[in-house]
Design a protein that fits this description.
Layout lengths: L6 E3 L2 E4 L9 H17 L4 E7 L5 E8 L11 E3 L5 H8 L3 E3 L2 H7 L1 H6 L5 E9 L2 E10 L9 H23 L11 E2 L20 H8 L4 E5 L5 E4 L1 H7 L3 H4 L4 H4 L9 H9 L4 E6 L8 E9 L2 E8 L8 H4 L8 H6 L2 H12 L3 H16 L3 E8 L2 E8 L12 E2 L5 H8 L3 E3 L2 H7 L11 E9 L2 E10 L7 H38 L10 E8 L8 E9 L5 E11 L1 H19 L4 H15 L5 E8 L5 E7 L5 E3 L5 E3 L4 E2 L12 E5 L5 E5 L11 H14 L5 H13 L8 E8 L1
Helix pairs in contact: 1-5, 13-14, 13-17, 14-17, 17-18, 18-19, 20-21
């Protein structure tokens, strides 16, 4: 707040200091008149005009009234593709009416993140035919739950049309109607600035002056541009100067310690809303400076300021206590820049809700110096605690499952769509009397988690020490809350889809294997680490009508629901062929033809072994599947050399030769899919050898423990992108 605002009177520009040269007088006069006119027409207290600039897709604030221009420098330049109401009105050619902060937060969270104050705003594009000149806007008091009335909409449109006609006429006459200068500050006729050196009683009756002079606290009155118009005697004594020297000056220039960056947000709040603002400020820049209590009382025509001495507060913005640090420190903002970016990147990789919460804990808390984090997710009309860290054990349980009609900050931030920032626990306790607190010292931020307009939940950030929240921090936190909400919504969809897929997988695999004499069988399925934990691997043990036992293992190409569905069809086909007494070659040929007829765009490998439990005689057939392993009773383990044909689903004329073998008592046959032995960038034969050695070294009894050991030893070292199936058969 170091810049002197431009001066103008009653809609007529008198001076506008800037470094870009003078603005076109005719254009400046037109936007100044429209600015004053629209504020009066809709009953507002501030307004302005954005015009096109010489830079494509860039709007510049051309005129402003009712607001000190330096306080709103961050919003003086507006790209037309930004998610702000000014940009949307210009881009769409449609008016934007925001009757309260809640509606503004739902539609334009970035606007309210930087200016989280209760105000209503109206935006009307300034167009003439196909020509778009800019946007006319007005600010006024909120009307919660009530839309902008039709007469106000019509008056807003009429003023915009009038300005468009003026600008079109200027353009036709050859005058420039683009803006390249600093904004013109326009004084509304109802509140002209008091000239420097005017009598102290100007604008106030003598009796009122005497009444105010009896007060021991300093009282000042400023207009909507922040210029002092009235000073009482206590103010002259407190600041050691005369009223004549203060009047006519901008408040934070006459009292430079009020111009500290730590207090900018307080002044933005009082000029944007109609609610009083109270804060403690340190007089002077020295750490031993006197502490003062500052109260700001806004009205449509100005702000009343009262200042009095106060003890050192329990909390003050760090930048006010230690000049050069805290909110106003570029070094602090630069050092914290990396982690929000890292959070945004990490959120794109988080898959489950737990992973999202862990990422937020690891990246968001350190970025802003937080110590506590809680995430609540919305389930119908209740909020349920999904993640917490840093809070006392069990403290948050009392808020788990709260309904959306309960007055709690974590609920209201979601229902209103507006983030809530409390610089100290005292502020939080004052805003929510009776609210249980987990600490007496600290600060809290409550962020709504909203994804594409859908409420997802709320996020609570806790800090061990009181702290301020700069507009930049509020904007970043609000934007990150949107990313967190989208990640959680994506994770929730993933979790539901994964549950469905796992249910499908479980339904397609055998619930139990048959218990037989002479042969013991054990099966294991391990989902891949990628995707939805479902794939096309399967195993089965089938008791045929003729007596022999059929051992089956297969692998449909790829993974996901489609592969699982194809797997279910193939498993049913193999079982049907086996139960009808088909030979191994007929089972494999028939399944191959079925997959070709189905034409799912997938192929599959399979190994089918028919075993006589009594004699141990076996006949095996293989379709592009990895060779089985056979562990002999003495522990010697070999890779079988079974003749085979091509994978299923490729060649309708494929032939699948049968290999005869015999399993001795005490031997173990291992059928498996390639997910257990295949490592990217490594020859699959190395994986098969590793599995062979693991099978040779494992105890064959009990067979369940052998299966668990093979999965653990052969699979633990792998990042398993593919799912895995294992079937062991032992002659007892």
């Amino acid at each position: 707040m170091q810049c002197t605002p431009p001066r103008a009177h009653a809609g007529v520009v008198t001076a506008r200091p800037d470094n870009n040269g003078p603005a076109p007088d005719a254009t400046a006069q037109a936007v100044a008149r429209a600015t004053v006119d629209v504020v009066a027409a809709v009953g507002g207290y501030a307004g302005g005009v954005y015009l096109r600039s010489g830079t494509p897709d860039l709007l510049l604030l051309a005129a402003i009234t009712g607001l000190p221009a330096p306080l709103f420098r961050p919003w003086q330049r507006m790209q037309v593709n930004r998610p702000y109401p000014v940009a949307e009105a210009f881009r769409s050619g449609q008016a934007v009416h925001l009757s309260d902060a809640e509606s503004a937060m739902r539609r334009f969270p970035q606007l309210m993140a930087g200016m989280p104050f209760p105000f209503a705003s109206l935006y009307q594009p300034v167009t003439a035919g196909r020509e778009r000149f800019g946007v006319l806007f007005a600010l006024r008091q909120v009307t919660p739950g009530l839309p902008v009335a039709t007469p106000d909409r019509e008056r807003l449109r009429e003023r915009a049309d009038r300005l468009a006609r003026d600008l079109a006429a200027l353009a036709a006459a050859g005058a420039p109607v683009v803006w390249e200068s600093a904004p013109v500050a326009v004084y509304m006729p109802s509140a002209p600035p008091a000239p420097a050196g005017a009598a102290g009683s100007a604008g106030a009756a003598g009796g009122a002056r005497e009444a105010v002079d009896r007060l021991t606290q300093a009282v000042l009155s400023a207009d909507r541009q922040g210029r002092i118009g009235f000073v009482n005697t206590a103010a002259e004594e407190l600041f050691g100067t005369t009223g004549s020297r203060l009047r006519g000056q901008v408040l934070w220039e006459a009292l430079p310690w009020l111009g500290h960056p730590a207090y900018e947000d307080h002044f933005r709040a009082v000029f944007l809303s109609t609610e009083p603002v109270h804060f403690a400020a340190r007089r002077g820049r020295h750490p031993t400076g006197e502490w003062l209590s500052v109260d700001l009382y806004p009205a449509p025509d100005g702000v009343t300021v009262t200042i009095s001495a106060t003890p050192e507060p329990t909390y003050a913005p760090p930048s006010a206590v230690r000049p050069g640090a805290g909110l106003g420190s570029p070094a602090d903002r630069a050092s914290a820049l990396y982690r929000p970016v890292a959070l945004a990147i990490a959120l794109t990789e988080a898959v489950t809700a737990r992973q999202v919460s862990a990422v937020v804990t690891e990246e968001l808390l350190p970025a802003f110096g937080g110590r506590q984090l809680a995430i609540y997710l919305l389930d119908e009309r209740h909020l349920h605690l999904a993640w917490e860290t840093g809070f006392p054990k069990g403290f948050l349980d009392q808020f788990d499952g709260v309904a959306l009609d309960v007055r709690l900050p974590g609920v209201e931030t979601l229902t209103s769509g507006r983030p809530l920032f409390f610089e100290s626990m005292e502020h939080l306790a004052a805003a929510y009397p009776g609210l249980p607190l987990d600490a007496s010292v600290g600060a809290r931020a409550f962020l709504p988690l909203i994804a594409s307009g859908r409420p997802v939940g709320s996020c609570i950030l806790g800090f061990d020490q009181p702290r301020g929240f700069s507009p930049e921090e509020r904007t970043v936190l609000t934007a990150l809350a949107g990313l967190i909400a989208q990640a959680l919504e994506r994770a929730r969809r993933y979790d539901s889809e994964a549950a469905l897929a796992r249910g499908l997988q479980a339904a397609l695999l055998p619930h139990r294997l048959p218990v037989l004499e002479h042969v013991q069988t054990v099966g294991r399925y391990l989902p891949g680490t990628a995707g939805m934990d479902v794939g096309g691997d399967w195993y089965d043990v089938i008791e045929t009508a003729a007596g022999p036992l059929a051992l089956v293992i297969g692998d449909v190409q790829g993974h996901g629901v489609s592969a699982a569905a194809t797997m279910g069809q193939l498993r049913s086909a193999v079982r049907a062929f086996a139960l009808t007494g088909s030979t191994p070659e007929q089972v494999m040929s028939g399944t191959n033809q079925l997959l070709i007829d189905l034409d799912p765009g997938q192929f599959a490998s399979c190994c089918y072994v028919v075993l006589d439990p009594v004699s141990g005689a076996a006949a095996a057939v293989r379709a592009g599947h990895p060779q089985p392993l056979l562990r002999h009773p003495d522990g010697r383990t070999e890779v079988l050399d079974l003749a085979g044909g091509v994978v299923l689903g490729i060649d309708p004329q494929a032939v699948y030769p049968v290999t005869e073998l015999r399993l001795a008592t005490g031997s173990v046959l291992a059928l498996y899919t390639d997910g257990l032995v295949e490592v990217a960038g490594t020859d699959i034969d190395l994986g098969v050898e590793r599995l062979r050695m693991a099978l040779a070294g494992a105890s064959p009894t009990p067979l369940t423990e052998m299966a668990d050991r093979l999965i653990a030893e052969a699979g633990s070292a792998l990042d398993r992108p593919d799912d895995t199936a294992l079937l062991l058969a032992s002659r007892t």
